[in-house]
Every structure is written in C-alpha cells, then in structure tokens.
Amino acid sequence: MITAALIFTLCTWLQADAKAIRRFLAIVIVVMAFIGAFGLDLVAGILIRLLLR
User: Fold this and answer.
1) Domain of residue 22, residue span
2) Is the Cβ–Cβ distance between 3 and 31 less than 8 Å?
3) For 32-45, what is each residue's pLDDT tens digit?
4) Under-70 pLDDT residues of the chain
C-alpha cells in the first residue's frame, strides 16, 4: 500500500484526473488481492502472457 500512496501523491502533483487515479488504485488493489489469493508466480505468469500476446 506504500507504493499506492506514492503513486497517488505523484498523480496529485501531476494534477491528473481523479477518476483515472481511482481506477488505477482499484486495479492495483485487485492485482494485490489476486496475488494474495493465487500466489505471486501464477499472477506474474498470467501478466507476462497478457503482455507478450
């Protein structure tokens, strides 16, 4: 959650859109939840497959 806070402050400094910040934080939280549920290796494998598609 420290990284999320850092990203939030960065976005505020850049005066980014509030909706975009909330969406990004939601994505980060969902990814963290998936890592907690399924383990880092599985989630990393899925993300790498999606990125290399």
Assistant:
1) 2-52
2) no
3) 888 788 887 887 88
4) 1, 11, 13-16
User: How far apart, in whole angstroms, are the C-alpha atoms of residue 19 and residue 46?
Assistant: 26
Amino acid at 52: L
The answer to whether the CB of 7 falls within 8 A of the CB of 28 is: yes
3-state secondary structure of 16: coil
Give me 37's structure tokens: 């549920």
Domain count along the chain:
1
pTM of the entire predicted model: 0.45
- Rounded CA gap, 43 and 36, in Å? 10
Could you say which DSSP state residue 53 is in? Answer: -
